[in-house]
Design a protein that fits this description.
alpha+beta, conserved putative lor/sdh protein from methanococcus maripaludis s2 fold, Elongation Factor Tu (Ef-tu), domain 3, four-stranded antiparallel beta sheet, transmembrane transporter activity, MdtA-like_C, coiled coil, MdtA-like_BSH
Length: 471
């Protein structure tokens, strides 16, 4: 019985093996039948333009003048002549201190002035008599000298009495407290009827129009801006006062008035490594209040012959940042660049590109150095059938992968909207293991795409990962 079973089982096993091996071999033969088409990518031609440059900082609003109103003489506080928190003008009456003592001192000083003046008049008459007697020889020169000295002392006493009168008058004036500047008053610090000492705080006045906004810039950034202005890269301002400043609130709204920078510190804060600057703006409606946090935007600078690229075009490799450019044969080439500044959704390139260069901006994950590509002009993404938005640089890849997975056949050439998906072949898998450069702005998504490209048995996963990258 054993030889019979062996003779029957061997043909059946060979038949089953042939059924399993035949589709795989056919698929491999079909995949190796021709070279894959070049991947479709979006290409932009580099153009130079004048680019306005703005700098944004966090700022804090402060009053342009913060004045402490203090008592300059002691006494009983009789009256407060303003409403707390109200606006006062320069010279408005704020407080009255009991003036009785100072009025008496003024009267005494005036009497002393009169006494000194009377003594001076008597000394002058004595000098005249002594001079006349000395000229006739009836009196000695010593008597004349004494009379002259008495007159000079009388003049000095008059000056001293007048100074004492002015001092007493000032003390009387200080009993009436007036606003030294216009602004908004704070709370009263001392109630009426209190006994004041010289120097006691009475209230504060904040001048809110104009108003200041203090902000700080990193020392490296400030130095970079200064160098760019000096070497002519940045145009439009030769001094901080030439820049225009605008304010943006936390809710996104913009303050309707603009200001200028009126102060920049010449020292660096040793604790924060920043340079303090101050902007001044008109504030007639008091929309800006002291202590308020705002976003301060510095405008007025521009870069001539500037080159900008979308952020997704920037790549990161072992040697630094670069982009892919196309030569005359539409083959991709690595072009190292220097990024001067990150903008809103784009980058400012300072070195590495020239006007007229063709740069791959979308579909960079499908590009290999030296390989040909199918360049497509930049355009608005179209809505594919089914209501889902089309991707950038890999349009149709997800749909093609899903279609091939549903049919159970390897996806060799699947198109959507005229674009060709990448082939799922063994060489592509090997290339994915080598770790090609990926977009600097989307490193995780680029890694997911490369892993999906290395798994030809899961076309649905490939399509899903690429769709996530596109979105």
């Amino acid at each position: 019985m054993r030889p019979f079973a062996t003779s029957i089982g061997l043909p059946i096993a060979l038949t089953l093996a042939g059924i399993l091996v035949w589709p795989v071999a056919g698929a491999l033969a079909q995949a190796g039948g021709g070279a894959p088409p070049p991947p479709a990518v979006t290409v932009e031609t580099v153009k130079t333009r004048t680019l306005p440059v703005t700098y944004e900082y966090a700022g804090r609003v402060a009053a342009s003048r913060e004045v402490q109103i203090r008592a300059r003489v002691g006494g009983i506080l009789l009256q407060r002549d303003f409403e707390e928190g109200s606006r006062v003008a320069e010279g408005d009456l704020l407080f009255r201190i009991d003036p009785a003592t100072y009025e008496a001192e003024v009267a005494l000083a005036r009497a002393q002035v009169v006494e000194a003046q009377a003594q001076l008049a008597q000394a002058r008459r004595s000098e005249e008599r002594a001079r006349a007697l000395a000229q006739r020889g009836a009196s000695s020169q010593a008597n004349l000298d004494d009379a002259i000295s008495a007159r000079e002392l009388g003049e000095a006493r008059v000056e001293a009495a007048n100074a004492q009168l002015r001092s007493a008058s000032l003390q009387l004036d200080y009993a009436t407290v007036e606003a030294p500047v216009g602004g908004i008053t704070s709370l009263e610090q001392v109630p009426e009827g209190s006994l004041l000492q010289t120097g006691d705080l009475l209230t504060r006045i904040d001048q809110l129009d104009p108003i200041n906004v203090n902000f700080s810039a990193a020392d490296t950034e400030a130095q970079s801006i200064r160098e760019l202005i000096e070497n002519g890269t940045l145009k439009g301002a030769s001094a901080p006062g030439d820049l225009k400043v605008s304010i943006r609130f936390g809710d996104g709204s913009t303050y309707e008035r603009t200001g200028t920078i009126d102060f920049t510190s010449t020292t660096i804060d040793s604790q924060t490594g920043t340079i303090l600057s101050r902007a001044v703006l008109p504030n007639p409606d008091q929309r800006l209040l002291p202590g308020q946090f705002v976003r301060l935007v510095v405008e007025g600078l521009s870069v001539e012959n500037a080159i900008t690229l979308p952020t997704e075009a920037l790549m990161q490799g072992p040697q630094g940042t670069f982009v892919y450019t196309l030569n005359a044969e539409n083959a991709a080439e690595v072009r190292p660049i220097t990024v001067a500044r990150d903008l809103d959704g784009s980058i400012l390139v300072s070195q590495g590109l020239e006007e007229g260069d063709r740069v791959i901006t979308k579909g960079v994950v499908k590009v290999r150095p030296g390989s040909p590509v199918d360049p497509q002009a930049a355009e608005e993404p179209a809505e594919p059938e089914g209501g889902e938005p089309a991707g950038n640089g890999a349009d149709g890849t997800a749909q093609a992968g899903e279609a091939s997975g549903a049919a159970g056949e390897p996806a060799e050439k699947a198109t959507n909207g005229g674009e060709t998906a990448e082939p799922e072949a063994a060489p592509e898998k090997a290339a994915s293991r080598s770790g090609p450069p990926v977009p600097r702005s989307a490193l995780p998504d680029g890694e997911a795409v490369r892993l999906a490209q290395g798994n030809p048995l899961n076309p649905k996963a490939e399509g899903r990962d690429r769709a996530e990258l596109i979105e």
